Amino acid sequence: MTENNESSDRLDRLERLMEQQIINMDRQLTINADLTQQIKEISIQIKAQATFHDRFEQELSTTRKLIESNAKAIAANSTSIDSERKAIKELRRTIRESRLDNLDRHRDHQERTNALYDSLDDLQDDIKEIGRKIDRKNSSE
Fold it and tell me: How many Å separate Cα 39 from the centre of its chain?
Protein backbone atom coordinates (compact mmCIF):
# COMPACT_ATOMS: atom_id res chain seq x y z
CA MET A 1 0.00 0.00 0.00
CA THR A 2 2.87 2.24 0.41
CA GLU A 3 3.35 2.09 -3.25
CA ASN A 4 -0.22 3.09 -3.79
CA ASN A 5 0.18 5.97 -1.38
CA GLU A 6 3.35 7.02 -3.07
CA SER A 7 1.69 6.84 -6.48
CA SER A 8 -1.26 8.76 -5.17
CA ASP A 9 1.05 11.37 -3.66
CA ARG A 10 2.90 11.66 -6.91
CA LEU A 11 -0.35 12.06 -8.81
CA ASP A 12 -1.50 14.70 -6.34
CA ARG A 13 1.77 16.60 -6.71
CA LEU A 14 1.62 16.26 -10.48
CA GLU A 15 -1.96 17.51 -10.42
CA ARG A 16 -0.98 20.48 -8.26
CA LEU A 17 1.95 21.20 -10.54
CA MET A 18 -0.30 21.12 -13.58
CA GLU A 19 -2.84 23.36 -11.84
CA GLN A 20 0.00 25.73 -10.93
CA GLN A 21 1.20 25.66 -14.54
CA ILE A 22 -2.34 26.40 -15.74
CA ILE A 23 -2.55 29.29 -13.27
CA ASN A 24 0.87 30.52 -14.41
CA MET A 25 -0.18 30.20 -18.06
CA ASP A 26 -3.37 32.15 -17.33
CA ARG A 27 -1.28 34.83 -15.62
CA GLN A 28 1.12 34.83 -18.57
CA LEU A 29 -1.79 35.14 -21.01
CA THR A 30 -3.20 38.03 -18.98
CA ILE A 31 0.24 39.68 -18.91
CA ASN A 32 0.61 39.07 -22.65
CA ALA A 33 -2.83 40.57 -23.30
CA ASP A 34 -1.93 43.59 -21.15
CA LEU A 35 1.38 43.95 -22.96
CA THR A 36 -0.35 43.63 -26.35
CA GLN A 37 -2.82 46.35 -25.32
CA GLN A 38 0.04 48.56 -24.10
CA ILE A 39 1.90 47.98 -27.37
CA LYS A 40 -1.23 48.98 -29.33
CA GLU A 41 -1.63 52.14 -27.22
CA ILE A 42 2.05 53.00 -27.60
CA SER A 43 1.79 52.36 -31.34
CA ILE A 44 -1.16 54.76 -31.53
CA GLN A 45 0.80 57.35 -29.54
CA ILE A 46 3.83 56.89 -31.80
CA LYS A 47 1.65 57.32 -34.90
CA ALA A 48 0.08 60.45 -33.36
CA GLN A 49 3.51 61.82 -32.51
CA ALA A 50 4.75 60.99 -36.01
CA THR A 51 1.75 62.79 -37.51
CA PHE A 52 2.36 65.74 -35.19
CA HIS A 53 6.05 65.69 -36.10
CA ASP A 54 5.22 65.62 -39.83
CA ARG A 55 2.81 68.53 -39.43
CA PHE A 56 5.38 70.37 -37.33
CA GLU A 57 8.03 69.79 -40.01
CA GLN A 58 5.61 71.05 -42.68
CA GLU A 59 4.81 74.15 -40.62
CA LEU A 60 8.50 74.67 -39.95
CA SER A 61 9.26 74.37 -43.65
CA THR A 62 6.47 76.83 -44.47
CA THR A 63 7.76 79.19 -41.79
CA ARG A 64 11.31 78.94 -43.18
CA LYS A 65 10.04 79.70 -46.69
CA LEU A 66 8.08 82.67 -45.35
CA ILE A 67 11.15 83.94 -43.49
CA GLU A 68 13.27 83.57 -46.65
CA SER A 69 10.61 85.37 -48.68
CA ASN A 70 10.44 88.17 -46.11
CA ALA A 71 14.23 88.41 -46.06
CA LYS A 72 14.24 88.77 -49.85
CA ALA A 73 11.49 91.39 -49.67
CA ILE A 74 13.40 93.29 -46.98
CA ALA A 75 16.57 93.14 -49.09
CA ALA A 76 14.64 94.37 -52.13
CA ASN A 77 13.09 97.17 -50.06
CA SER A 78 16.51 98.11 -48.72
CA THR A 79 17.84 98.26 -52.26
CA SER A 80 14.80 100.26 -53.32
CA ILE A 81 15.22 102.63 -50.36
CA ASP A 82 18.91 103.06 -51.20
CA SER A 83 18.00 103.78 -54.82
CA GLU A 84 15.35 106.28 -53.72
CA ARG A 85 17.85 107.97 -51.39
CA LYS A 86 20.34 108.24 -54.24
CA ALA A 87 17.62 109.58 -56.53
CA ILE A 88 16.60 112.15 -53.90
CA LYS A 89 20.23 113.24 -53.45
CA GLU A 90 20.60 113.55 -57.22
CA LEU A 91 17.34 115.52 -57.43
CA ARG A 92 18.48 117.86 -54.66
CA ARG A 93 21.81 118.36 -56.45
CA THR A 94 19.96 119.08 -59.70
CA ILE A 95 17.63 121.55 -57.94
CA ARG A 96 20.62 123.29 -56.34
CA GLU A 97 22.39 123.53 -59.69
CA SER A 98 19.19 124.75 -61.33
CA ARG A 99 18.77 127.42 -58.66
CA LEU A 100 22.36 128.54 -59.14
CA ASP A 101 21.85 128.61 -62.92
CA ASN A 102 18.65 130.61 -62.44
CA LEU A 103 20.46 133.04 -60.13
CA ASP A 104 23.25 133.42 -62.70
CA ARG A 105 20.70 134.00 -65.47
CA HIS A 106 18.82 136.48 -63.29
CA ARG A 107 22.07 138.37 -62.58
CA ASP A 108 22.94 138.35 -66.28
CA HIS A 109 19.45 139.54 -67.14
CA GLN A 110 19.65 142.22 -64.46
CA GLU A 111 23.04 143.35 -65.75
CA ARG A 112 21.70 143.49 -69.33
CA THR A 113 18.60 145.33 -68.13
CA ASN A 114 20.76 147.81 -66.23
CA ALA A 115 22.98 148.21 -69.29
CA LEU A 116 19.87 148.82 -71.42
CA TYR A 117 18.64 151.42 -68.94
CA ASP A 118 22.06 153.04 -68.98
CA SER A 119 21.99 153.02 -72.79
CA LEU A 120 18.46 154.44 -72.71
CA ASP A 121 19.59 157.18 -70.32
CA ASP A 122 22.50 157.91 -72.63
CA LEU A 123 20.14 158.00 -75.64
CA GLN A 124 17.76 160.30 -73.79
CA ASP A 125 20.68 162.54 -72.90
CA ASP A 126 21.80 162.45 -76.55
CA ILE A 127 18.25 163.22 -77.74
CA LYS A 128 18.04 166.12 -75.29
CA GLU A 129 21.39 167.40 -76.49
CA ILE A 130 20.30 167.06 -80.11
CA GLY A 131 17.04 168.84 -79.21
CA ARG A 132 18.99 171.69 -77.58
CA LYS A 133 21.28 171.94 -80.59
CA ILE A 134 18.23 172.06 -82.87
CA ASP A 135 16.61 174.67 -80.61
CA ARG A 136 19.81 176.76 -80.67
CA LYS A 137 20.04 176.42 -84.37
CA ASN A 138 16.39 177.40 -84.83
CA SER A 139 16.68 180.32 -82.45
CA SER A 140 19.80 181.66 -84.16
CA GLU A 141 18.12 181.56 -87.50
Answer: 46
Does residue 81 register a pLDDT over 70?
yes
For residues 137 and 5, give the distance between their C-alpha atoms in angstroms, rounded to a whole number.
191
In angstroms, rounded to a whole number, what is the distance separating the alpha carbons of residues 36 and 40?
6
CA distances, 39 to each of 25, 36, 108, 112 (Å): 20, 5, 101, 106
Listing DSSP states for 100-111 in one string gives HHHHHHHHHHHH
Over range 84-93, report the average pLDDT: 94
User: Which region among 5-14, 20-29, 109-118 has the lowest average model confidence (pLDDT)?
Assistant: 5-14
HEC states along 25-94? HHHHHHHHHHHHHHHHHHHHHHHHHHHHHHHHHHHHHHHHHHHHHHHHHHHHHHHHHHHHHHHHHHHHHH
> Rounded distance, CA 126 to CA 114, Å?
18
CA 135 from chain center: how many Å? 92
Handedness of CA 93, 94, 99, 103 (dihedral sign): positive
Gap between the Cα atoms of 92 and 80, Å rounded: 18
Is the whole model's pTM more than 0.70, yes or no?
Answer: no
